[in-house]
Inverse folding.
């Protein structure tokens, strides 16, 4: 016990600039990010596990309608919502994930349950059924409705009906958290509503172990936010871990190579948050902004939005 | 052009022993594996791409009812069939995958189409819709029926109704192919019906880029077969590639570490087939057997089943 603990979170990356942000909106975003950090910190400070901390931090973000995850999830092409989430334990390399869920209030909590089962990855109606059978809160699809997301969807439909949306509102809404606890164990969690107007049961990287999430006590815990197709092809979270494990790079060096060299070469936009076993935090992105924050052992929280 | 080309295939790993194999069955398995190798070799020999070769080799295996992929896919807990497949191009790092598909005759062909679209990973009914809209052959779920699979499912239901099947018939049915072509480009493809009696929309590693499939011209092309949950947690295919890229190991060294050290430590059973840019082939498994084969430039095919 009593190793240096730390927590970092993100609320999505993309074209986030001061020019298209009102003061009220910025205050609201910062308040939720700070609450998420403080709730996670409380758990770590009391000697709780990094898994408990990242799950709690992500639930705060899922329950806010500001971020594209949980309550604030975007519309798919059918006018519905399909949620993805994943969680991984660095000590045991256990992992759990849901994809294409439609009636789960907190996908990250269900992912945690799956992590402790014989399964890793449950999808579609089956994921909803699993959640219901195991007592998790079910919500009607209307729970995810907001005027803002509806208007965003209508705009996406009008411009590029059959395409993934990334031009209408170039913002890769995802939330995530990574932490190292007093016992030195790492954990990572990611949750998203995916891309606006997505169709064909499209999954991105957020529910894919190795791509949008990865944790390993010997290296790091990583949560990603970005254009899912490119992050899948880059196996981003695991790649950062491998650069540390096999090449001896630091977390920051590895993250810089993967996000600012390899992803840019591939055409991928987005970022990552990461923490290593010593409590070092990296917040790396190649987009204009990323909702992000971190908090150290002393409880000093830092929240930022622009680059 | 005219680099050394090679192709390797697998038809699943697990408890496959001479004791539980009849002579007729063994002859039938060998015949399909040899046909798959020869069809793939023909493409490579004529200067075709490794992508064409692995797709063709896998289609032969999907169309046989002997292997748990395509036509021979196992039953899920509802008495239906849900197919997974993935393909990756080592030159471009493009990838395509389907998960939870129910009416696609050849999931690997649809994965190839997705690879060349804006998507990477399509699932459930959406994957079926995508296939139909793009002109791929649709089949009723009864296409996948066979007495053998039905009896296997009934046995699984009787013994452990709610569990993933891996004890009734400890055989991780999956098919896959990897190849390097005359231009030195690598490709990998994997396809499966998943685990017998699976439920909750369970996905394994076969449709997950980095886990059940990976290809990168700078290292190797890998297709996996094994207990999906453990292969997902190990990010197996990408891990082999990273050990080569970042630690300078050979394909065989990297595959041995991942399958015979890391997977065994994690509790995972199964194997991989791999090829590198020089045409070296590795067929590595920690189970009792693996349906497998390889063919070199000269057309010498080798097929094996037991360890």
């Amino acid at each position: 016990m009593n190793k240096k603990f730390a927590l970092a979170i993100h609320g999505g990356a993309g074209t986030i600039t001061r020019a298209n942000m009102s003061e009220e909106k910025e205050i609201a975003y910062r308040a939720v990010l700070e609450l998420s950090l403080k709730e996670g910190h409380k758990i770590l400070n009391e000697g709780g596990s990094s898994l408990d901390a990242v799950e709690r931090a992500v639930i705060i973000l899922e329950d806010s309608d500001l971020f594209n995850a949980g309550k604030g999830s975007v519309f798919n092409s059918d006018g519905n919502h399909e949620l993805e989430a994943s969680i991984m334990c660095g000590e045991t390399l256990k992992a759990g994930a849901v994809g294409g869920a439609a009636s789960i209030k907190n996908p990250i909590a269900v992912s945690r349950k799956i992590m402790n089962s014989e399964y890793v990855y449950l999808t579609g109606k089956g994921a909803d059924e699993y959640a219901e059978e195991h007592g998790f809160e079910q919500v009607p699809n209307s729970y995810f409705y907001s005027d803002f997301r509806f208007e965003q969807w209508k705009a996406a439909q009008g411009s590029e009906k059959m395409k993934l949306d990334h031009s209408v509102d170039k913002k890769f809404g995802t939330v995530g958290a990574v932490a190292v606890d007093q016992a030195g164990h790492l954990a990572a969690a990611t949750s998203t509503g995916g891309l606006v107007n997505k169709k064909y049961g499209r999954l991105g990287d957020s529910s894919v172990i190795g791509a949008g999430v990865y944790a390993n006590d010997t290296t790091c815990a990583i949560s990603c936010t970005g254009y899912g197709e490119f992050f899948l092809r880059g196996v981003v979270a695991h790649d950062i871990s491998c650069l540390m494990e096999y090449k001896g790079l630091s977390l920051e060096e590895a993250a810089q190579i993967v996000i600012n060299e390899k992803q840019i070469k591939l055409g991928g936009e987005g970022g990552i948050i990461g923490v290593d076993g010593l409590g070092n935090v990296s917040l790396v992105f190649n987009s204009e902004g990323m909702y992000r924050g971190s908090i150290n052992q002393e409880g000093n929280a830092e929240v930022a939005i622009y680059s």
Notes: Chain A is about 35% helix and 25% strand. The two ends of chain A are 35 Å apart (CA to CA).
